[in-house]
């Protein structure tokens, strides 16, 4: 009972994470489109010194501008289908188990994926990217990205770290152990029955 209730709370927090990520992602994109349109018409606007700022572009590729050509779009669609399938499969394996950390990680990944999917559906195939990270001193300019990209990247990195150190396997082992262990009431009932049998044997 307690374990099932805790699992439902974790799933609810994962759903809340998805909602927050999608909402914040769409809100920031709407602000950028409203204040910096048309795309690539305004110079870099610094947020943190000259290292992180806003530079609005329309990205028809994947995260960070990858696969932006026509052949890349076909590959991108296939990769997105496979990735979503894998994420959903892993999540449903932990639907009634798994740690809170895993649920929040999947919330970040799913929320980021949904944010960009909503963008593509609404904008006719492109995603609004606007965060530009650069280090001018060494002539380094990272690909322009958005909040959804950042959440997906952080989520995938954390998932990799957890899997690498056995966190997912540990959660699965705990689930299997709970399923294999007898119910407390059933166990107590068996003990009571065994006790009564012993008492009858003594009396006879």
UniProtKB/TrEMBL annotation:
Its EC number is 3.4.23.36. It is a multi-pass membrane protein. The keyword Lyase does not apply. GO terms for molecular function: aspartic-type endopeptidase activity. It comes from the Bacteria. The chain crosses the membrane at residues 74-92, 99-118, 138-168. Pathway: Protein modification; lipoprotein biosynthesis (signal peptide cleavage). One of its GO terms (biological process) is proteolysis. Residues 184-204 have a biased composition (Polar residues). InterPro entries: Peptidase_A8. It is an enzyme of class 3 (hydrolase). It catalyses: Release of signal peptides from bacterial membrane prolipoproteins. Hydrolyzes -Xaa-Yaa-Zaa-|-(S,diacylglyceryl)Cys-, in which Xaa is hydrophobic (preferably Leu), and Yaa (Ala or Ser) and Zaa (Gly or Ala) have small, neutral side chains. It is found in: Cell membrane. The active site is at residues 129, 149. Residues 174-204 are annotated as: Disordered. It holds the Pfam family Peptidase_A8. This protein specifically catalyzes the removal of signal peptides from prolipoproteins. Belongs to the peptidase A8 family. This is Lipoprotein signal peptidase. It comes from Ktedonosporobacter rubrisoli. The lineage of its organism: Bacteria, Bacillati, Chloroflexota, Ktedonobacteria, Ktedonobacterales. The gene is lspA.
């Amino acid at each position: 009972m307690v374990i099932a209730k805790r699992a439902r709370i974790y799933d609810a927090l994962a759903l809340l994470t998805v909602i927050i990520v999608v909402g914040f992602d769409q809100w920031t994109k709407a602000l950028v489109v409203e204040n910096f349109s048309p795309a690539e018409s305004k110079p870099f606007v610094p947020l943190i010194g000259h290292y992180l700022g806003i530079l609005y572009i329309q990205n028809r590729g994947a995260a960070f501008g990858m696969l932006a050509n026509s052949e890349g779009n076909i590959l991108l669609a296939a990769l997105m289908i496979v990735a979503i399938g894998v994420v959903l499969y892993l999540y449903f394996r932990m639907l009634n188990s798994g740690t809170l950390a895993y649920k929040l990680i999947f919330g970040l990944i799913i929320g980021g994926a949904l944010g960009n999917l909503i963008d593509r559906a609404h904008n006719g195939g492109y995603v609004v990217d606007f965060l530009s990270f650069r280090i001018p001193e060494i002539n380094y300019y990272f690909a322009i990205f958005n909040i959804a990209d950042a959440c997906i990247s952080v989520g995938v990195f954390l998932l990799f770290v957890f899997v690498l150190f056995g966190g997912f396997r540990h959660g699965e082992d705990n689930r299997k152990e709970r399923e294999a262990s007898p119910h407390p009431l059933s166990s107590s009932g068996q003990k009571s029955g065994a006790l009564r049998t012993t008492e009858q044997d003594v009396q006879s």
